[in-house]
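In this supplementary section we document a worked example of the pipeline. Step one takes a protein sequence of length 225 as its only input; no multiple sequence alignment statistics are reported here. Step two produces a three-dimensional model, which step three serialises into structure tokens for compact storage. The input and output of this example are shown verbatim.
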Amino acid sequence: NSTSCHLAARCGLRTATSWGVLNPKNSSFVTFAKQVAAARELVGGQSQDQSKRPSKGRRKAEPVLADDGGFATAEELRKLALAKGWKYLLQSYWKAFDFELDNLEELFKTHEPVLVTRGSQQELLAFSWAYHRHDERTGLDFYATMYTDDDLDCTLRHIEAQVQLAIEANASAVTLMYPASLESKLHDLGLADRHKDPVDGTKHPKLCKLFERNRGDPPHYDEKD
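The serialised model returned by step three reads:
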């Protein structure tokens, strides 16, 4: 919100990157999944209306669990990040890491299998990654981040797939992070809520922002964090 941005500016920090945040209510995960599926159908219909050419198969590929034939290595994720210009992962619960091999390999040990989207030549196009945080009092908190760039259809497919996995895991809370560039589109589709800023009273997108110093080093994985 504006308060955190003002505080970061006073501390000499800048926004390195940001993610949109979705928090479907725990009483309606199934309903939310249906809403995402309906939004995906709407987006697909609009795309067909705008172009007479058939959609490319790579855009319609369903996310596949890495354990179910969509195996992805740390090196493959890193190469995709380099190609896309992604510098950071947002994993665990609200922790940022850089796309280094040692970080990815450590995260493979603690996270759920990666959901991947591949093209017609089996090239990796996008992925999403979930983390289960178990709490004796509140149950299972399900966190998942979408690494889908600005592809709205692909993002919706990954969101829907991750919510289904959360339902199967009997999650008590779900938090989904997605490319912030798509926030306005997800808001127009009725999926992304906005919060009222306590300072200026205006409504703002729900974002998770990573701040860094202009010449600071990127965050690294640390088991003590």
